[in-house]
Structures are given as C-alpha cells and as structure tokens.
Amino acid sequence: MTHTLDATRAADGGRTRRGRRRSAAGRQHHAGWLTYVLLGIAALISLFPLYWNLVAASHTGERVVSPPAPLLPGPRLFDNLTFAWNQVDMGEALVNTTVVASLVAVSTVLFSTLAGFAFAKLPFKGRGALLALVVATMTIPPQLSVIPLYQIITDLGWVDQLQSVVLPSLVAAFGVFFMRQFLIEALPVELVEAARMDGAHSLRIIWHVVFPVARPAMAVLGMLVFVQAWNDFFWPFIALTPDGSPTLQVALAGLGAGNHSVDQAIVLTGALISTVPLLLVFAVLGKHIVGGITAGAVKS
Questions:
Q1: Burial 262-285 (b: 16+ CB within 10 A, else e)
Q2: CA–CA separation, 248 vs 255, rounded Å?
C-alpha cells in the first residue's frame, strides 16, 4: 500500500512538473528594461549619421566644415534642396536609378532562383564543377573586367546609355549561391517528384512549387540587390557621364563643384535626396520581407 501511494505521488508530481514546463513554454517572455535601453542606444547610434546628414544639408558649406560641427538644423535646407535638385537634374537621375535598380533586382532574383533550383535539385553531369566555377567568380575583383567590358559597350555603341549598366548585372554569382543554399533545405525533392508524377512540366513546377517556397529568400535577395544597384558607383561612373543619362551616384560626383572648392553642404544635400527613396522602400516593403522570412523559418 505504501509503495502504491508513493508511485501515485511520483506520477502526480511528474504530471505537475510537465504541466508547469508546458505552461512556462506557452508564456510569452517579455524583455527587461535593460534590453530596451540597449536597443534604444543602438537605434540612436544607427540613426545619428542620417540625422547629421539632415543637419549638414540645412547649413552653408562654410558652417559644415567649421569646428565645432553643427548638431542642430539650420535655415538653409530648402534652399540647398532646390540648388542641388537643379544643378545636376536630380529628377532625371532618380528616374534612371530607379529603372536600373529595379531591372537589376528583378532579373537577378529571377535568374538566380532558376539557377539555384537547378544546382539544388536537378541532377546533371558536371553540376559540382559548374557550381565551383560560379562561386570562384566571386573571388575575381570587378576592376579586372572593366577594360574588356568597356570595350564591349563601346563596340555596341552603348556608352552613356542605361543598358550598359543593366546588362552586365542581370545575374550575380552570390545570388545563385544564395538561392541554391536556401532551396537545398527549404524545397523537399519529394515535392518536385510528386509534381512531375502529376504531369506538371518544368515551367509549371517552377511557377507553382519553386517560386512559392523560395519567396522569402527571393524577397531578401531582391532587397539586397536593389540597394547594391542603387548605391553602385564604380561601373556607372565609367559607363555614364553626368551630362548624359547619369544615375544618382554619378550625378552626385558632379554636385557642389565650384571654382576652387566643393560645397560639402550641397554634396550632403544630394546624398540626403538619394537616401530618402531607399528609406521609403524599406518603410513600405520591410514588413512584408520580415513576414516572409518569418514564414519561411517556421516548420510544421
């Protein structure tokens, strides 16, 4: 009888402990005040360069370079914005940069997803060697390809035209490797085989199986490529001119130039103009991208 009571108490105690663990696991843990303080400090540090850019854009060039540096906004923000906008036709540069960055982002995501799916799930001869060759191209400095690439666009008559910036960036080795690594884990091969057994052809499998599974990674890759193309300066500065069809970064290179000096306030005003569209893109699409990443990270 004593042994029976002890066994019953032990079983009740085990159920109670398991119930407590389930209850603790179901509760939502809230961050402490120290976490919020550290996050607030990190946010202020991250936002300070943008704030100071706004402050510098609201002062004269002499005041910006004179110590101590200004920390409060000045009265010349709208005057500097108007001058910077008109000096290098910032409106045309914004349109050109939006077109270039959008085309590069869409094409890179599309081709990288297709190539990543092939490397991840399609067996073909030489797949490993070809993937190693693609990854090896990431180690080649882009400066080495400038002369032959410029010779090509010169022969095609594309100097100072937007296609000279778009076409060399239609696909990136990093994007192919990134999508391949994601699809290896996220896309079960059984799902592809089941679609083939149901009679689906390759394009239908890609549209109805691969793209829905790869959507979180496609969103992240698209944002990364869009920002990189928006801020790209090296090749656009060679292929385009400030007086032709410049992107924003090329237009900024000729901004604020005077007889013997550069007006730093005007340069920073142009940088502020080029940053605002990126902030708007993050504000509009950031929630969807984070939601897609979260959805892709949850396993049933």
A1: ebbbbbbbbbbbbbeeeeebeeee
A2: 10
Q: How confident is the model at residue 28 (pLDDT cuts 50, 70, 90)?
A: low
CB atoms within 10 A of CB 220: 18
Phi, psi at residue 102, to the nearest 5°? -65, -45
Query: Distance (Å, rounded) from C-alpha 126 to C-alpha 59?
Result: 60
Angle at 295 between CA 291 and CA 300, to 5 degrees: 160
Q: Could you tell me the end-to-end alpha-carbon distance of the chain, in angstroms, rounded to an integer?
A: 45
Q: Residues 127-132: contacts with CB within 8 Å, 24+ apart? A: 131/177, 131/180
Q: DSSP secondary structure string, 79-107?
A: HHHHHHHHHTTHHHHHHHHHHHHHHHHHH
Token reading at 239: 């292929």
Segment 6-24 shows an average pLDDT of: 52
**DSSP assignment of 191-227:** HHHHHHHTT--HHHHIIIIIHHHHHHHHHHHHHHHHH
Question: Do the beta carbons of residue 247 and residue 164 sit within 8 Å?
Answer: no
User: What's the predicted TM-score (pTM) here?
Assistant: 0.79
For residues 179 and 187, what is the distance between their CA atoms, to the nearest angstrom?
11
Q: Give the whole-number percent of the chain exceeding pLDDT 90.
A: 16
Residue type, 86: N
The rounded distance, in Å, linking the Cα atoms of 48 and 299 is 38
DSSP lists the bridge partners of residue 262 as 257
At 293 the pLDDT is: 58
Q: Are 83 and 106 in contact (CB under 8 A)?
A: no
Helix (H) or strand (E) holding 22: helix 2-26
Rg (CA), the chain: 27
Of residues 251, 257, 252, 282, the one with CA closest to residue 268:
252
Q: How confident is the model at residue 300 (pLDDT cuts 50, 70, 90)?
A: very low
A 10 A CB-CB count for 296 gives: 18
